[in-house]
Specification:
disordered N terminus, alpha/beta, 438 residues, Rossmann fold, binds nicotinamide-adenine-dinucleotide
Length: 438
């Protein structure tokens, strides 16, 4: 019973009151995540009493990031770090530099990290960070100053045992090196374990750069086996040809698949005979985009979703597969390399049309799995060889996927809901075991 004030109103907010920032933007990524949680609650049994935990990030930090620009002016950028849940261990999740970053997006990405980390059973909670900026418009010096100031601002909540950032869209090994150095300068000793995805010479792990794409390939191959799809003859379309899409495309093509269409921020290309993937990766490294690649047709961007393929790999940004294009997709299987590329309404259309969706929260978990290996190696100062890392990664991915596949069959739910069931049960079980403080 809540206390009443003299005016007869409750002095404390009712337990169900939702803070306004959690309600805002219900159609955005955070709204999509909330709908996914609602679908899992009926499957949580007694643990459902803790489900509200999943709908509220534990901690949200918004920071002003002022820097000197090369032309002598001062620019201000808005940065975020959100820790969604830390019941199972420190927060863990990437940092994104993109002009469209919003709080809703970072909240959703942090929540998907909680689910993903629990799905592959690594001992982390979920977190994510970002700066609203187009980093392509910054000089190298400006980029370094912005990264360092942002790291300093979020330094009050990150740390090797608190919250460990990693690369995401438009961030890479160099940015992780600057983040590690800044945190170390501020704390007075070299703390390699504060970030993962670092250069190997700074305590990074072999195999980390390829890990997410390798995980996409591993679960894709497992799922293909279940539905009788032969990878060696499959036609694949990939959206986003960066870290995730580029590596996944390379591994599928090495396994015999034809990569017939690729889209990135610069445009869309098509080649029915199969693109020369190593040459395309070199072209992207040289020019920054797949646009202008010799030996491929140019396709209108919207036509990408209609390409006649067996496997579609969205590996760019969220909310790409919507009610506008889900009905036109021809693939038998979608492997979500990106986080949140499919809206819940599009998910329903795809399920009705019998398109198998391998959800982000399991399909792209390879990156954080090797990040976990990196963190363990940093703590023990003992480094493993690449074969061992890849073997352990493949083992974890196959085991996690097999568990999720079984739950999906038993409960007759989508693989997304099955992954949420497995993961949310793990998160809420630890929540219950730890109890509420005080
Ligand atoms: P990246 O910066 O290396 O590549 C991003 C790619 O997306 C680029 O090819 C870019 O051109 C393309 N892109 C950007 N805007 C686009 C648009 N409007 N239309 C089409 N393509 C567009 O980033 P990444 O690390 O490969 O991340 C891609 C996705 O994978 C993101 O959703 C990220 O959260 C997710 N992810 C990344 C990792 C990782 O380890 N890097 C792990 C898990 C999930």
């Amino acid at each position: 019973m809540s206390q009443a004030t003299a005016e007869g109103e409750s002095a404390i907010a009712p337990a169900s009151a939702i803070p306004s920032y959690l309600q805002a933007d219900n159609l955005g990524p955070w709204g999509n995540y909330l709908q996914q949680v609602d679908r899992v609650i009926p499957h949580l049994g007694k643990l459902a009493r803790w489900a509200e935990t999943l709908k509220r990030p534990k901690r949200i930090l918004i920071v002003d990031v002022p820097i000197h620009m090369d032309d002598g002016t001062v620019a201000h950028f808005e940065g975020y770090r959100v820790q969604h849940n830390v019941s199972r261990g420190p927060g863990k999740g990437g940092v994104r530099f993109h002009q469209d970053v919003t709080l809703s997006e970072v909240m959703a990405l942090s929540a998907w990290m909680s689910v993903k980390n629990a799905a592959v059973n690594v001992p982390y909670g979920g977190a994510k960070g970002g700066i609203r900026v187009d980093p392509k418009k910054l000089s190298r010096g400006e980029l370094e100053r912005m990264t360092r100031r942002y790291t300093s601002e979020i330094g009050i909540i990150i740390g090797p045992n608190k919250d460990i950032p990693a690369p995401d869209v438009n961030t890479n090994e160099q940015i992780m090196a600057w983040m590690m150095d800044t945190y170390s300068m501020n704390t007075g000793s070299t703390a390699t374990g504060v970030v993962t995805g670092k250069p190997v010479d700074l305590g990074g792990s072999l195999g980390r750069r390829e890990a997410t794409g390798r995980g996409v390939f591993t679960v894709g191959t497992e799922a293909a086996r279940h539905i009788g799809l032969d990878i060696a003859t499959a036609r694949v379309a990939v959206q986003g040809f960066g870290n995730v899409g580029g590596v996944a495309g390379k591994l599928f093509s090495e396994a015999g698949a034809r990569i017939i269409a690729v889209q990135d921020h610069g445009g869309t290309i098509l080649c029915e005979a199969g693109l020369d993937v190593p040459a395309l990766l070199q072209h992207v490294a040289d020019t920054g985009s797949v646009a202008g690649f010799a030996g491929a047709e140019v396709l209108a961007d919207e036509k990408f979703w209609e390409v006649d393929c067996d496997i579609l790999i969205p590996a760019a940004l969220e909310q790409q597969i919507t009610t506008q294009n889900a009905g036109r997709i021809k693939a038998r299987m979608i492997i979500e390399g990106a986080n949140g590329p499919t809206t819940p309404a599009a998910d329903d259309i795809l399920q009705e049309r019998n398109v198998l969706v391998l959800p982000d929260v399991i399909a792209n978990a390879g990156g954080v799995t090797v990040s976990y290996f990196e963190w363990v190696q940093d703590f023990s100062s003992f480094f493993w060889d690449e074969d061992e890392i890849n073997a352990r990664l493949v083992k974890i991915m196959k085991m996690a996927f097999a568990g999720v596949w079984q739950v999906a069959q038993e409960k007759k739910v989508s693989l997304r809901t099955a992954t949420f069931i497995v993961a949310c049960q793990r998160i809420l079980h630890t929540r219950e075991l730890r109890g509420l403080y005080p």
